[in-house]
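Q: What does the predicted 3D structure of Lipoprotein look like?
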Amino acid sequence: MKRFLLLPALILPLAACQMADEGASSGAENDLCSASAHQDLVGADRAAVAAAGLEPGPKTRIIGPGHAVTMDFRVDRINVELDENDRVIRVYCG
């Protein structure tokens, strides 16, 4: 019986060694929306986002704090996430 109690303790550390999901890689193939070209906007205000040509539309989503957004992933859509002070905190594809 004690052997069976020891088995989960030995298997659990092996779960941490599993391979990462290749579909979640963050390489150039996932930057079809050109988010990497807009990383300089992080820390800037909403006016800088508009000056960079990023206006809300089918391929650009400006996300404020507490805004409801769909969970669908579109590789050609750029998301600009803002904080409570209308400062950019994240620019990413999706």
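A (community wiki): The structure tokens above were generated from the sequence. The CA atoms of residues 26 and 93 lie 10 Å apart. The beta strands are 60-63, 78-82, 88-93.
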